[in-house]
Automatic annotation (TrEMBL):
Entries under PROSITE patterns matching the protein: FBOX
InterPro entries (UniProt xref): F-box-like_dom_sf, F-box_dom
Keywords: Signal
Protein name: F-box domain-containing protein
Domain F-box: 82-128
Length: 393
């Protein structure tokens, strides 16, 4: 018995000195206590009165150890349980992406390959294209885009995008730093969108590098010689001012005219898919009646492209304008009035042949081409909104 006590005393002394050299971590404190309890349980096993006390003490310490161990695991789980955007259900993620502006989609596309595939989808960009650009892009613009991407090797926009990366090139868009992705799916290399994608077309329009064809009302900042007219032009967008720069084709020997600061409300999609140098063959001549609103092609001479000018169908000189007795719609001659000019002006009226109308005019008064009747109240109200404040000479 004495030998046993001496041995245990020596062991305990050695253990205390060892533990005093380096503090034990928090997690080990309970285990040390448990070890000491096991030792004393063995040491006092012959004492029946101490055995129950030690068993209850052991049970209490074991439960405490388990609770702390469980709490430690829970804290670790809570620390590592942050959700990634990719952990969201598919439908929820799609709803979020649908509500992002184009800048947000560009930023999300740089996070990882999975988000890139979703953020560059045709469905998302078709919606943004229609909302912002649908009112000014027509068939001619899409043909121009196809030609543009076919010569992409010479395009400074795409060369710059390839050299600097999509997000560097679009540095004006905000970065998304709050999206966490799985490191295994991280999108290390920033790759520009597919050259023939809707996203590429949208970004090219936004950058101002892609010039697209459209028509401009009251060209050259409302120059008096172009009031109530609409001319074809090539347009480039300025994101900084939210306006356009317009390039008009040269007129005769005149150089190309350039106009800046063209606002959205002065643009429209060409109503007819015809060249401004081609005569439009009218299909409404037989139904024209006094009071109808029309647009007619006009050019200064045959070297110039046509512009569209607003007018109304008037009455013949032999008609008093009484609607009950008017027979102007039965005549082969149609009177066109341009009421923005004063009475007696050579630009005030012109006559065309209803049955055999071709380009008519001369070098002094210009040449009148095809006619299109306006059926839309929206088109008519647009011309009325542009009406000059003073009558023209």
């Amino acid at each position: 018995m004495l030998f046993l006590l001496i041995t245990c005393f020596t062991f305990i002394t050695f253990l205390c000195k060892s533990l005093s050299l380096k503090p034990l971590p928090i997690w080990s404190s309970s285990e040390v206590r448990l070890l000491s309890i096991w030792f004393w349980n063995d040491f006092l096993i012959l004492n029946p009165f101490k055995k129950g006390f030690l068993e209850s003490l052991m049970s209490s310490n074991v439960m405490t150890l388990r609770r702390k161990s469980f709490s430690y695991r829970v804290e670790n789980v809570e620390t590592n349980s942050e959700m990634s955007v990719l952990d969201l259900p598919e439908l929820v993620l799609e709803c979020i992406l649908e509500r992002l502006p184009p800048e947000g989609l560009c930023s999300m596309a740089s996070v990882c390959s999975s988000l890139r595939e979703k953020c560059t989808s045709k469905y998302l960009w078709e919606k943004h294209m229609k909302e912002k650009w649908g009112r000014v892009l027509g068939p001619a613009s899409h043909r121009e885009w196809l030609w543009h991407i076919s010569s992409r090797n010479d395009s400074s926009f795409f060369n710059q995008a390839k050299e600097r990366g999509l997000m560097t090139y679009l540095s004006q868009f905000w970065p998304i730093s709050l999206v966490r992705s799985n490191p295994s799916t991280s999108f290390k290399k920033k790759v520009p969108p597919a050259i023939d994608s809707i996203m590429s077309m949208y970004l090219a329009l936004e950058s101002g590098k892609f010039w697209f064809p459209a028509q401009v009302y009251n060209r050259e900042n409302g120059h008096v010689g172009f009031m109530l007219s609409c001319y074809d032009a090539e347009l480039s967008y300025s994101r900084r001012t939210d306006t356009f720069q317009a390039r008009y084709p040269p007129h005769g020997r005149r150089a190309m005219a350039i106009e800046t600061g063209v606002t959205w409300d002065r643009l429209r999609v060409p109503p007819l898919d015809t060249s401004p140098h081609d005569l439009y063959i009218s299909d409404c001549l037989t139904e024209l009646c006094p009071g109808d609103h029309i647009e007619i092609q006009w050019r200064r001479n045959k070297e110039f492209p046509y512009g569209w000018w607003y007018g109304v169908v008037g009455h013949l000189e032999t008609c008093d304008g009484n609607e009950y007795y008017c027979r102007c719609h039965e005549s082969d001659t149609v009177v066109l009035e341009f009421k923005q000019y004063t009475h007696g002006s050579r630009w005030r009226t012109t006559h065309i042949d209803r049955k055999d109308h071709r380009e008519e005019g001369n070098e002094a008064d210009g040449f009148y081409g095809g006619i299109r009747k306006l059926y839309s109240n929206e088109e008519i109200s647009m011309w009325r909104r542009l009406w000059p404040s003073d009558v023209l000479e």
